[in-house]
Amino acid sequence: MLPKLLEHQTAIENAAIQTARDAMQEKFSLVLYDVTTLYFESFKEYEFQKPGFSKDNKPMQPQIVIGLITTRSGFPVMHEVFEGNTFEGHTMLAVVKRFQERVGETKPVIVADAAMLSKANMQQLEKDGHCYIVGARLASTAAGFIDQIDRKLPRTDKAMRRFDYGHAVENATMICEFSDARYKKDKREFDKQLKRALDLLERNEPGRRAKFVKKSKEKDKPFIFDTTLQAKTEKLLGVKGFVTNIPEKTMSSADVISYYRDLWHVEQAFRMSKSDLQAIPIFHRTQDSIRAHMLICFMGLMMGKYLEINTKRSLRQIRKELLNVHEAHIRDEQTGEVHVMQMDNGDFSSSMLGKLLDSELSH
79, 84, 297, 318: which has the fewest C-beta neighbours closer than 10 Å? Predict the structure, then answer.
């Protein structure tokens, strides 16, 4: 019977969208999109669950890829399930298109992380009339562009500057921000990688994963230190990039960065699904059963986030409070009458959670 739930997916997602509109006054001017992976307790792949890049650090086990759209506050409104070997950058357009069909004429700003940054994705979003804010992969940009950032971006905390990114996609600009905290973190990692590379070269054990080590054409010295990569990396310490097609006169650079940082809400929703809602491990095998399993998790996530947003408490705190509510049903064997004895629920009834549940029940 589980796959029959899929017949109601449209109604369930429409209910999520309507709840966001009615209960949270959501206008869908901006939505967040991110992807995660869920693994299976098996090493045998089937036609839908396949090994791929695993965010659960389970590269040998088959998995599926989940794309999720949420409001800026993290309330889920749409999801999609993809084969386990699907590149996450190839998931976004399909979900956004389906979401657009549900919300009508509204054209939300799409906020996504760097994995969604591709020329094809940005061009299609632009063609469909969407504005976007995506993370930038600065390390993969041209050396000349990195030199430009190094020259023009001040190295003071929270300094930011826009750069023309039109060579990649028309109307796109890249906002770069320098952060003292990010610099300290990047510098610690840079120093560790540098030391590892030099130690391996000294022992003539370069290793496959050693950054700043590259192959040499010399026979007696197969590996050498990559000074070009070192210089490139040093120029980007403490710098984060954000690509958008929103003009500065429409939205300030500070606001663009602020919206991008809201992506933690989607990441938190994924963590809730995996832990509190126990979305994994998955033991289903057929595609319909897997999709139905994820639809149940989506419904649980809807209810959990609705409670969290309205009570300002975590799902674990809510669960703990609900578990403290008890009542006893005592049945008189002679008369058949049932007597209900409730504990003192004064603290619960006066809480935000109690008032919210009373309000929902009254409707």
Answer: 318
Place of tokens 């947003």: 309
Q: Do residues 245 and 270 share a domain?
A: yes
Number of domains forming the structure of the chain: 3
Q: What is the DSSP string of 79-124?
A: EEEEETT--GGGTHHHHHHHHHHHHTT--PEEEE-GGG--HHHHHH
Is the model's pLDDT at 345 over the cut of 90? Answer: no
- What is the DSSP secondary-structure string of 111-165? EE-GGG--HHHHHHHHHTT--EEEE--GGGS-HHHHHHHHHHS--STTEEEEEE-
Question: What pLDDT, on a 0 to 100 scale, did the predictor assign at position 80?
Answer: 92
Tens digits of per-residue pLDDT, 54-106?
877 888 888 889 999 999 989 999 999 999 888 888 889 989 999 998 888 78
- The vertex-193 CA angle with 87 and 188, nearest 5°, equals 100
